[in-house]
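Minutes, project huddle
Topic: does the predicted pose make sense with adenosine-5'-diphosphate bound?
PN asked that the exact inputs be recorded in the minutes so nobody has to dig through chat later. Recorded below.
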Amino acid sequence: MSALMLEVKSVQAGYGPMTVLDGLSFQVARGERLAMIGRNGVGKTTALRAVMGVVPLRGGSILFAGEDVSRLSAHQRAERGLGLVPQTRDVFPSLTVEENLLAGLKRRPKAALSEAYDLFPRLAERRHNGGNQLSGGEQQMLSVARALLGQPRLLLMDEPLEGLAPLIRQELLAAFRHMGQQTGISVVIVEQQVDEALAYAGRAVILDHGAVVHEDDAAKLAKDTDTLERWVGMAVH
Ligand SMILES: Nc1ncnc2c1ncn2[C@@H]1O[C@H](COP(=O)(O)OP(=O)(O)O)[C@@H](O)[C@H]1O
Ligand SMILES: [Mg+2]
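Predicted holo structure (tokens), as shared on screen:
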């Protein structure tokens, strides 16, 4: 058994004539939480989509739990245990919370459903409410809960805290921590909320122009304001 959950090796990917990922390499250990940060447009979303198989590789390879999944479809990768919470919350407004959770699932994973409700008690309270009646934070909980119903071993989350008030961000992060303790799941979290992402993660990579330009222990990087200012360019604290 590979000690690594994910190995991204020299990946190239893009859209039309544009190259976005240009020699992207990083690794995620089993049970590890990796933060991926960087300025807008550097390729973070594309990186997660390439790992999931939504964006095709033009070069390099992706190993998941030791298996080369580079040529597998997104569906096949989901079956292997990869899950993605996309940047846009894809909640169906006309379905209830519970219908949203069960949409697209072939069998009704009762145990997984009750685990998702344990993790997000707010969703349990609102299980019969419509998707259009949820707050931004609740929609984000629903997106994460839905990804968890696929029982992923590695969850890729694209800016899950975006647009949420500080208290709701803390509530979500507490649920993510709880999720890690319960399931031992590995996580890659892309975030603009750098302080919060680094407090949550164990290790961090910084992307620029579609490649990793810096890698460090998350707690160390949180204090390394020179590096953060150089590559992320936002006032931290
Ligand atoms: N579907 C797409 N078609 C064409 N270009 C895209 C598409 N998605 C993203 N891009 C471009 O790819 C680059 C990287 O985008 P993205 O991966 O979304 O970066 P980030 O998530 O770091 O902000 C940007 O220049 C963006 O405009
Ligand atoms: Mg993005």
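Observations noted during the meeting:
- The chain is about 40% helix and 25% strand.
- Residues 15, 20, 38, 40-46 surround adenosine-5'-diphosphate (ligand 1) (CB under 6 Å).
No decisions taken; revisit at the next huddle.
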